[in-house]
Amino acid sequence: MLTGKNILLIISGGIAAYKVLEVIRRLRDQGASIRAILTKGGAEFVTPLSVAALTENKVYQDLFSLTDEAEMGHIRLSREADLVLVAPATADLLAKMAAGMASDLATTALLATNKPVLVAPTMNVEMWNHAATQANIATLESRGILRIGPAGGDLACGETGTGRLAEPFEIIAAVQNFFALQDGPKPLAGKKAVVTSGPTHEPIDPVRFIANRSSGKQGHAIAAELARAGADVTLVSGPVTLPNPAGVRVVQVETAQEMLAAVQGQLPADIAVCAAAVADWRVLHRADQKLKKTGDGVIPALQFAENPDILATISTAGPNRPSLVVGFAAETENVVDHARAKRDRKGCDWILANNVGPETGTFGGDNNEIHLIGGSDPARDEIWPRQSKTAVARSLVARITRHFNS
Asked: Which residues bind CTP (predicted)?
């Protein structure tokens, strides 16, 4: 399915670089033509000879090689590819990409390219979680850079956490998905979708609010993948620090009441995915001024009111009800049982159940494990293994596509 596709592969330094040899082999098996740039760090882990043998092409390493520049200049190298794949993508290379540096052949080709770029990061968990790396990732994704991984698990440094290079089959699937959406008919073209994402903030006074730990990463990823599949997407987002997904109309809200009004304003629609972690309650009487300590140990009493149930409201919207309504069930115990009861109670079509207990790292993290409940019959359920939230979004969009095409 990749016959005739030209891929520029950039291999940077990292112990996981050995996995890229398998990626090359599988891409070549599917007909792709690959040229490779091997950084100085990458050459510490895989040899130019092994990469050349598998790609059946010259391996490029030196920006100032007169021979290489005469045969295949870095501008031409970056422009003749249909996709630039960076695997592994180290923290250093991602930082240079975000800063627009051109200090070697790899960074120069990345800065010079006008083609889509897919990165597969790998690094130590603390490096991945560092604010600088997360800011760099947000910058790159806001510019349209695609990403697969990193995954969680045991790391080469002996620590455990997010930072593993995506497995070869996951990288291959990401490349296949890119070309399938790039070249083929958009499977959800003509469909209108509305997605909710992030937390809601329910004010107590002008400086305090009630919220939860949702980052919005899952909802934003779903909106992006729906748009890539051709849907006309509106993302209704609570307060998050994420960049807006490319090709998506975004409505920013703060409270649950504002989110419901924004969603209703987008109806009728074909698809609704309620991924936001909406606060169940709000303070009934918000203070106009900051609540102050009294000094006598008396704690202000807060009276709560129940927030509107967005998923249930959309699921019972009469003629404006989307033909497919998908909800999320964020649970910490009895995940599947609680999610199945939620589906019956809310009236939605599917529920994606996930465990958000503190030990899972799901809230605010990059990975998710999903149990899709698609009906009253457990035989129709699907269990998706723990994977990146982007991969979860792709799986959901593929499932939505099958639903509309069946």
From this structure: 280, 290, 308-311, 328, 342, 346
